[in-house]
Structures are given as structure tokens and as C-alpha cells.
Specification:
This protein is an alpha+beta fold. Helices cover about 35% and strands about 25% of the residues. The protein starts with a helix and ends with a helix.
């Protein structure tokens, strides 16, 4: 009986601790509790339910070593956060420590950006010139298992942790590819992931410039500025900005890139959270250099996500660019990390991104102005051919494909559109000049 009383007292302490954490994380929400049905009394009532369930597990579950109070509490927190959305998460102390270390140094990885699509771990995009890219991983591949362990109930951060590791070590992933439908297991050797964010700057034909942004990080805006200056010096009078398979990156980088093509003061993106509680921000074009005097086409596809969608949406809303390709991925939410007293933390979705006209990006994506479908296999061939040409090494990847007659139909349409826009502009300029005489 005394053991039972002690157990009950401990559980009430655990319940009180849980409530305390809840109140700290949601202090602003609690201050508005009178406007909702979830009053403090309801919170205490639900905590009692939780402690009762924990006691039943502790007393009756078949495997006693799985009934430690901390493990039960962490399990409850994991389920609580996962039930909100795929991006909210409870991080145990070790996982939170790993996350902080990731921002401080290099790590070994595969070079793929993943997300949840319909509850399934899905490849948003393979990063160029990385082990995953060379192994033939494609946008849209469903990751069914990692090193033999099913991903059915895995969180995003857990999947990332499993695929990262010491450079030179191997990891096996089982993927389901929809078109053509097949299941295959691929063994990939981890490597240090270093990817240039701006690549491929060139004058293609008829003074049309081309530049590709692979991801958005701190050096991206400066690297793009350098590329644009070089293309302008070569006589560029139109631009193709390629954001296909760009999984995103830093918000500030997306803002810095967008403002190069918009008038000063033009709205770029806003973040909106829960009224009175969540993050509310708005970003406008500033800067000193604005490229406003030539037409732009932005190429996007299903692998364009997050920061890429911010840039594409801003330029489309301000009619500064024509979007060509396919609907983007639809990753437009903001996660905030809140450390907890025991070294763990929660990652909580606190806001969503909106384009200048008020369109929500999250789970909606950005629709292109001109839809040009391209199969995953055709896009992969285009990427591999381009990578081989840039690297000058046909043995750089593990894929043996006939690339002689591969055509980038989306880029070709972009070129045609820009030629048409320039022709229209030149005729309009001629008529305006003739009318003024």
C-alpha cells in the first residue's frame, strides 16, 4: 500500500511538471484562456487522466523495463507533438544536442531534403553533386525503410538523424517510386555535404542569361549578385532563374534574393501565426541594386520548396516574372524551438508563410503561369547531363543512361517565352517612340 501511495505521489508530481511545462510554453495562450473552452480546471482534469494511464501502464504492462516514468512521459510528449503536424516535434536531450551541433560544424549525410507527404516520408529533392544525387534518388521517392527499419511511424528529425553519420559510412534506404512503379533498396555512402548555392551562370542565346539557385544559405545573395553582374557585362537582356529541385533554406536569403528584382518597398512575404500568440512579420524589398529593366522567367517544379516558393510567389504576385514548370511542393510553415529544463526541447509550428497577395504557401504550393510537365526520369536525366557537363567528368555518378538526346523542355519553353516578351516590348517601345514624334 505504501508503495502505491508513493507511486501516486510521484505521478502527481509528474503531472504537475507536465502542466508546468505546458504553461511555460503556452503562457500567452493561457492568458487568453477565458476566450476558449480549455480552462485551467479542464487542464488539471486532463492531467489526472494522463497520470491514471501512466499508473496503469506502470502497474500492468508486460515488459516492466519499458515502464520507467521518464520513458512514459517522453513517449506522451512525442505523441502530443506529432499529432499536431509533421513538423512539430519533441526532442529528447540527445536529439536536441545533435540538432544544435548540426549548426556548428560539418556532418556526413546523403544530400537529400525530406518531408512528409500524406503521412509518408518523401524526398522533396536530392541536392546536386551529392551521394543521393549520384545514386539516382529522385523527387517524389517514398522512403519506406532506413537500414531495414520501417519509417511508418518515424518523425522527420528521427529520419534525418538515421541518415546522417560519419563520412564514409554506409546506409541503406528502401524507396518506393510511383512512376514507373518500383521498390528498390539503395546503399549510399555518407559524405560531407557541401553544395554551391548558385551555379550554372551563362548566356544561353540571344542575350538570355541563365542562373540556377540550388539552395538558399548565407552566401546565396552575394553569389547571385556576382553572377548577375557578370551576365550583365556580357550583354544579358533577359533572365531565366532556375529554382527547380531547390528545397529552400534561410528565410533571410529568400528575401535578399527577391529584393534584387523588386522595387524598393515592395512586399515580399509575411508570416502569420495564431492571432495574438503566433509570429507576425512582414518583409519588404530594401537593398541598393534592383534589376527591373529586363524580363524574367522562374522555373519551378515539385522539388521547389520553402524559400524557393517565397521567391517564386513574390515575383509572380508583383508580375515581375513568369513562372514556368510544375506546382511547387508547398512547405511554408515556421518552426520555433523551445528548450526545456531537463535538456529536451520542443519544435513547434508557430506561423505560416503568405505571398504578397495573401496566398498561403503551406500545403498549397505555387501554381506556375505556364504548366510544362516533366517526368521524374526526364528531369533526372536533365540534371545528370547538366552536372556531367559542368564537372567535365562522365564517371562522376553511378547511373548509366543514354543522355545524348535529352531535352530540357521547361527551359526551352522559358527561352521561347522570353523571346516573345522581348519582341512585344520592342514593338511597344517603337510605337511609343513613333507616336511621340
Amino acid at each position: 500500500m505504501s508503495a502505491l501511495i508513493i507511486g501516486r505521489r510521484f505521478l502527481w508530481l509528474v503531472g504537475a511538471l507536465l502542466l508546468g511545462v505546458n504553461l511555460v510554453v503556452g503562457a500567452k495562450i493561457a492568458s487568453r484562456a477565458d476566450k476558449t473552452n480549455d480552462t485551467d480546471s479542464v487542464a488539471f482534469e486532463k492531467m489526472q487522466l494522463l497520470t491514471e494511464v501512466m499508473m496503469l501502464i506502470r502497474q500492468n504492462y508486460v515488459d516492466e523495463d519499458k515502464t520507467q516514468y521518464k520513458d512514459l512521459l517522453y513517449g506522451a510528449l512525442r505523441g502530443m507533438l506529432q499529432s499536431l503536424d509533421p513538423h512539430s516535434q519533441f526532442m529528447e536531450p540527445a536529439m536536441f544536442s545533435d540538432m544544435k551541433n548540426d549548426t556548428a560544424g560539418e556532418f556526413g549525410g546523403l544530400g537529400i531534403i525530406i518531408g512528409m507527404r500524406d503521412g509518408v516520408l518523401t524526398v522533396i529533392a536530392p541536392m546536386e553533386d551529392t551521394p543521393a544525387f549520384r545514386a539516382g534518388i529522385m523527387h517524389g521517392d517514398k522512403i519506406m525503410a532506413i537500414d531495414g527499419a520501417s519509417t511508418e511511424a518515424i518523425s522527420l528529425q528521427e529520419a534525418v538523424s538515421k541518415m546522417r553519420g560519419e563520412p564514409g559510412t554506409k546506409v541503406k534506404i528502401k524507396i518506393l517510386r510511383i512512376k514507373p512503379q518500383e521498390v528498390k533498396e539503395v546503399e549510399i555512402v555518407r559524405a560531407i555535404i557541401k553544395v554551391e548555392s548558385v551555379k550554372g551562370a551563362a548566356i544561353l542565346e540571344d542575350h538570355i542569361g541563365y542562373v540556377r539557385i540550388v539552395q538558399f544559405n548565407e552566401p546565396t545573395a552575394d553569389a547571385l549578385q556576382k553572377a548577375l553582374d557578370e551576365l550583365a557585362a556580357k550583354g544579358m537582356n533577359a533572365l531565366v532563374l532556375d529554382l527547380r529541385n531547390n528545397p529552400g533554406g534561410l528565410l533571410v536569403s529568400a528575401v535578399d534574393v527577391s529584393q534584387k528584382f523588386l522595387k524598393r518597398g515592395a512586399k515580399i512575404v509575411s508570416t502569420k501565426g495564431r492571432p495574438g500568440v503566433g509570429l507576425q512579420s512582414e518583409y519588404e524589398a530594401k537593398g541598393k541594386v534592383h534589376y527591373l529593366d529586363y524580363p524574367i522567367v522562374v522555373l519551378v517544379n515539385g522539388g521547389s520548396a520553402s524559400a524557393s516558393e517565397i521567391v517564386a510567389g513574390a515575383l509572380q504576385d508583383h508580375r515581375r516574372a513568369i513562372l514556368i514548370g510544375e506546382k511547387t511542393f508547398g512547405k511554408g510553415s515556421v518552426q520555433s524551438v523551445q528548450p526545456l529544463e531537463d535538456g529536451s526541447a520542443i519544435r513547434l509550428t508557430t506561423a505560416k508563410y503568405y505571398t504578397p497577395s495573401g496566398r498561403m504557401i503551406h500545403e498549397k504550393g505555387i501554381e506556375p503561369d505556364v504548366v510544362i510537365p516533366m517526368s521524374a526520369m526526364q528531369w533526372q536525366k536533365v540534371q545528370i547531363k547538366r552536372s556531367r557537363e559542368e564537372l567535365g567528368n562522365e564517371e562522376e555518378d553511378d547511373i548509366k543512361l543514354d543522355l545524348e538526346h535529352v531535352t530540357d523542355t521547361q527551359l526551352e519553353r522559358a527561352m521561347d517565352v522570353l523571346k516573345g516578351v522581348r519582341l512585344f516590348q520592342s514593338r511597344a517601345d517603337f510605337h511609343q517612340q513613333y507616336a511621340s514624334q
